[in-house]
Design goal:
heterodimer; B: mainly alpha; MetI-like fold; about 5% strand
């Protein structure tokens, strides 16, 4: 083996080693959560409320709260995101305005989540007097996930071949008719996957909801948009750092972490599988 | 309606605009629902503007809410003083320097870990791994990116911190280093996927030319692919920086959050250290933001921290964005 080959062997081994380390970290995270979390998971854990000062019982209110806030987030963000994407991909001509829009989308996706939290707290909760509530949190999360939804929807629109639009227009349809009846139906799967991914990310976000409406503990489930709510990620944060008997509630924290990770993983997988199946059905 | 003969006169413009052009030419003839289409287009235009409005609102709002604190305390105190006691009735202090340095040191620490790690992993995926392995590795990297930050913080708390404490013989492993490691792991997917994209988009001609000159595959990576992809890789690092500096929950749970400067005096000179408990800008906003009295000076001072954070990430992301655009343009021309 000459020097050149030896060098190559060494460096390729090094890069393989780093790749292996990445996989090892992923495996270690999954292993530690699943191993310690699985022991706690039971049907009661999922459907019971926290009991005895959160040292026993389950996570039902947090699960429900997360379900509420992330569904509401998607309900707000998806229509706005899709219409923005339609403008960008179907109507807009290349020019200064479009460049500024794209620039702000990219920059919004880089704004720290805690800054969105401050924004929600100051503008929505304090200035618009929505208070710290389910609605404030959902609006904050929706603003935060808007860039993701727009980007995913635009990708979906881009994937529809231009010949569809040309065909529609050639048959005498108006631009809007073409978009609504030819482009959108074919972009729906892509948009839906994007929305599910946004849902998964919103479900795992903690920093914005700490400032805008998530509660430490509530005896009742939220019944109105103006109520505060419990949420899985915040519950995990409290169980692992804020509780007075940290060691005693550690198993519950593991269980909560497992449920949260499983939820996010399942949503992601559902999105990926759905996209794959829709792609198979596509004939173009 | 355009006459058939007109088609000959139509000169096709550049490729990218062709579809829009044909669409326009065709819709010209349709007078029937012109008005409706006009309003529909305007409606979508307004929706398209939402993101600009939100960005301007966030910036304007941060400026507006932090102004009372800046006016009363002065920006210098926020940026250069070290005593943070914003709600003390006797002598309030608004020195945010420990948080600013905390954020920067922890982030730089994270990058020192994640950059070599991420670039080598990207090289492996982009240049070393056979095609099928490559296709299997990419989704695994994406899984690493979907863990919520609170879960990563939890892992840092229960797995990493005890380990660090034991290795360095500390009573608590909740120090800046723990925060830096977990942040490094969290920025890995960003760095790997963008760097890998950059490496893969280097035109194959470059590699073939290097092989033809007798270079080995590693030499080609080292002297051709990596330099050609460098601006994309730098952009990946900057996006990683932006992500790490804005990360809240993981550092909040891992880094200890002590209110002190992240420096250690050696021979009378202050040196940056990650071996003590550190509080970042994001962590401080999260800790104090949930129970601060609305409208107080303390409340406004938290918006100053938010503004500092916003400006830092905005600048970094903007530079990364410019570099990525340039990188893509250069590659497109070739």
């Amino acid at each position: 083996m000459n020097k050149k080959d030896r060098q190559q062997a060494i460096w390729f081994t090094v890069s393989g080693f780093f790749m292996l380390m990445t996989l090892a970290v992923l495996a270690a995270i999954l292993y530690s959560i699943f191993k310690s979390g699985a022991a706690v998971i039971s049907w009661e854990f999922l459907v019971d409320a926290p009991r005895r000062n959160m040292t026993a019982g389950g996570i039902m209110p947090a699960l429900v709260g997360t379900f509420y806030v992330s569904s509401l987030t998607v309900l707000i963000a998806v229509p706005l995101g899709i219409t923005s994407a339609i403008y960008l991909n179907e109507y807009a001509r290349q020019g200064t305005i479009v460049r500024i829009i794209r620039l702000s989308i990219r920059n919004l996706s880089g704004v720290p989540s805690i800054v969105y939290g401050l924004f929600g707290l100051g503008l929505l909760a304090a200035t618009f007097r929505l208070g710290t509530s389910l609605l404030t949190s959902a609006l904050t999360l929706a603003i935060m996930s808007l860039p993701w939804v727009i980007t995913a929807s635009e990708e979906a629109l881009k994937a529809v071949p231009a010949s569809f639009r040309e065909g529609g227009l050639a048959l005498g349809a108006t631009k809007w008719q073409t978009i609504r009846q030819l482009v959108l139906p074919n972009a729906v799967p892509g948009m839906a996957t994007g929305s599910i991914l946004a849902l998964a990310r919103a479900a795992g976000e903690t920093a914005p909801i700490i400032l805008t409406g998530a509660a430490f503990f509530l005896p009742n489930l939220p019944t109105a948009l103006s109520d505060r709510f419990m949420a899985l990620p915040y519950h995990l944060f409290i169980l692992s750092t804020q509780h007075t008997q940290i060691e005693r509630v550690r198993p519950l924290a593991y269980g909560t972490a497992l449920v949260l990770v499983a939820l996010v993983l399942l949503l992601n997988m559902a999105a990926i599988i759905w996209r794959y199946q829709m792609r198979k059905k596509q004939t173009w | 309606m355009p006459e058939l003969g007109d088609a000959k006169k139509i000169q096709l413009p550049l490729r990218g605009q062709r579809d829009a052009y044909i669409a326009d030419k065709l819709t010209e003839g349709v007078k029937k629902s012109h008005l409706a289409n006009f309003f529909i287009e305007k409606f979508f235009f307004l929706c398209g503007l939402t993101t600009i409005v939100i960005l301007v609102l966030i910036l304007g709002f941060l400026l507006d809410k932090s102004w009372p604190a800046i006016q009363e305390v002065g920006l210098q105190e926020f940026l250069f003083q070290t005593r943070w006691m914003p709600s003390s009735p006797i002598e309030a202090g608004f020195g945010a320097l420990p948080f600013i340095l905390g954020s920067i040191f922890v982030t730089v620490g994270a990058l020192i870990i994640a950059v070599p790690w991420g670039i080598f992993s990207a090289v492996y995926i982009g240049e070393v791994a056979p095609f099928r392995l490559k296709e299997a590795l990419k989704p695994l990297i994406e899984i690493l990116a979907i863990f919520p930050s609170v879960v990563m913080g939890f892992i840092a708390l229960v797995v990493l911190a005890p380990l660090i404490g034991e290795i360095f013989g500390l009573t608590s492993g909740l120090i800046g280093l723990t925060g830096a490691i977990i942040l490094g792991i969290m920025t890995l997917p960003t760095i790997i996927s963008i760097a890998e994209d950059a490496i893969t988009s280097v035109p194959n001609d470059y590699r073939e030319a290097a092989y033809a000159l007798g270079a080995s595959r590693w030499q080609t990576v080292r002297y051709v692919s990596l330099p050609a992809a460098s601006s994309g890789i730098v952009a990946a690092i900057m996006l990683g920086f932006g992500r790490a500096v804005g990360e809240t929950m993981a550092v909040l749970m891992a880094a200890g959050n002590a209110l002190s400067m992240p420096v250690r005096e050696i021979l009378g000179l202050p040196f940056p250290t990650l071996m003590k408990s550190v509080r970042t800008l994001t962590a401080n906003i999260a800790i104090e933001g949930s129970d601060v009295a609305w409208g107080s000076l303390h409340y406004h001072s938290l918006f100053v921290l938010g503004l500092i954070l916003f400006i830092m990430t905005f600048a970094v992301n903007l530079i990364a964005d410019i570099m990525l655009t340039r990188f893509q343009e250069v590659n497109r021309n070739e």
